[in-house]
Design goal:
Elements (H helix, E strand, L loop, with lengths): L5 E2 L9 H25 L6 H13 L3 H4 L1 H12 L3 H18 L2 H9 L1 H21 L1 H30 L4 H29 L4 H6 L2 H11 L14 E4 L5 H30 L4 H26 L6 H20 L5 H25 L4 H19 L1 H13 L5 H19 L8 E4 L1
Antiparallel strand pairs: 1-3, 2-3
Helix pairs in contact: 2-9, 2-11, 4-5, 4-9, 4-12, 5-8, 5-12, 5-16, 5-17, 6-7, 6-8, 7-8, 7-11, 8-9, 9-13, 12-13, 12-14, 12-15, 12-16, 12-17, 12-18, 13-15, 14-15, 14-18
């Protein structure tokens, strides 16, 4: 695809659906042309089911290392003598690494190829899981860093592979990818405690079990490693993104909604245990809430793109999220499952809308790739502060009630950023071949 240096549209409201449709069709034609070139020269791509299976298995592994820790956090803390602040750091480190290591993804992909990097990082993720569950306190923190870094790199690469190799069905495939993420998180949240109980109440075995799906995914991804995408090795430079206010609004929305998500992954079971639930019950509530995200993660983007912009959708899903969070924290425990379902509906929508905004606010695929790297790099770094703040506040107060202030502040910030990011505008940048 031969692209000359082009400037994005002036920042004006995109007033008609016809205009948006024409622009999207132009991008789709370019993507399909690239897809046809790849299919003509690489037989493996003619078997998209193999790539689809590999993508699903890889995506399933991008959350268990994060959500498996929460139901066992109290057991791990007691076993190793961790303070609440140290436990907060344990939940923060993987999320921080998502942001810090995300910028490495495009560099590694240009050097080694995206498929090889994904395979190598899956093995690194498996190593981090083993390290976290077998080598005491040092291994626990070092493995968490390695796991978070691995997930951060793969998480940046997979959407680009989806858009490249499934150009005609990119929307559907993004939904499948998001659902696989949610399913992996739900499986780990709900089954880690029963697994540890099965292995003589060993939290190390419960956490270590998740090395198995990582290795299985690596085996099924192996056939993709031989592919070389010559036309896709051409690099493009995108200038001006860090100076663009809209790009920062998208980044802030990604980061703040992610902060609430990782507070839930890291601390919701502990909060519920503090309210009287057993670890198994708390893990099941988290798992059930994440499973509900499967529905809203597909529905929210579809509904949001029916209107002229996404501002109303962002306000609705954030309101559902905050309502569910406050309900889980303060409402009578008898209605807990209702609040957990409300929380799942909200968070599934907030996450999928964050991904959708990256595409809608970008003029072409190169801008989208760079905006994705920026929003995940800076966004996840910001998101890591949420779980850490919860640990600090809990340590200071000795309870969970004050955590509601964190929910309110982060949620309000996400709504404000989302009202800016949800406008029907394009980021103002330049994209050129290098």
């Amino acid at each position: 695809m031969n692209l000359e240096t082009e400037k994005s549209m002036p920042r004006n409201e995109i007033s008609t659906s016809a205009k948006r449709t024409a622009e999207l069709e132009e991008l789709l034609i370019d993507a399909e042309a690239d897809d046809e070139q790849v299919q003509q020269s690489h037989p493996l791509v003619r078997r998209p089911w193999l790539l689809l299976l590999g993508l699903i298995l890889v995506a399933l592994n991008l959350r268990p290392a994060l959500s498996s820790m929460a139901p066992l956090l109290s057991d791990v803390s007691k076993s190793l003598g961790l303070s609440a602040a140290q436990a907060g750091l344990l939940t923060t480190l993987p999320v921080l690494c998502l942001g810090l290591f995300a910028p490495l993804a495009p560099i590694l992909a240009r050097r080694f190829g995206a498929e090889r990097v994904v395979l190598g990082i899956l093995l690194t993720l498996a190593g981090g899981i083993i390290l976290r569950s077998n080598f005491g306190e040092i291994g626990l923190f070092a493995g968490s860093v390695l796991g978070g870094a691995s997930i951060g790199i793969v998480g940046v690469l997979l959407p680009g592979i989806v858009k490249r190799d499934f150009a005609k069905h990119a929307g559907t495939m993004t939904g499948v990818y998001t659902m696989a993420l949610c399913l992996g998180a739900a499986m780990a949240a709900g089954s880690t405690v029963p697994l540890s109980e099965h292995f003589d109440n060993s939290w190390a075995m419960g956490l270590g079990f998740w090395v198995i799906p990582a290795l299985v995914a690596a085996v099924f991804w192996l056939p993709q490693v031989g592919k070389q995408h010559g036309s896709h090795n051409v690099a493009y430079r995108v200038r001006g993104l860090l100076r663009d206010p809209l790009a920062w609004q998208v980044t802030l929305y990604m980061g703040l909604q992610s902060s609430l998500a990782y507070i839930v992954f890291g601390w919701l079971p502990s909060i519920l245990i503090g309210r009287g639930l057993t670890p198994t019950q708390a893990g099941l509530v988290l798992s059930g809430s994440v499973i509900v995200q499967l529905a809203s993660s597909l529905a929210a983007p579809w509904l949001a793109t029916r209107g002229k912009d996404q501002r109303l959708a962002i306000v609705v899903v954030m309101a559902l999220t905050l309502g569910g969070l406050f309900g889980c924290l303060y409402a009578p425990i008898e209605g807990l499952w209702g609040w957990a379902i409300l929380l799942g509906l909200g968070q599934g929508g907030t996450f999928s809308l964050a991904l959708t905004l990256i595409v809608l606010r970008s003029r072409d695929s190169h801008v989208a790739a760079n905006l994705s790297s920026m929003s995940q790099g800076f966004g996840y770094t910001l998101a890591s502060m949420g779980p850490f703040a919860v640990g600090i506040v809990h340590d200071w107060t000795g309870g969970w009630n004050a955590v509601g202030w964190i929910f309110g502040i982060v949620g309000t910030g996400a709504i404000i950023a989302g009202l800016g990011a949800g406008r029907a505008l394009y980021v103002q940048v330049e994209s050129e071949k290098i």
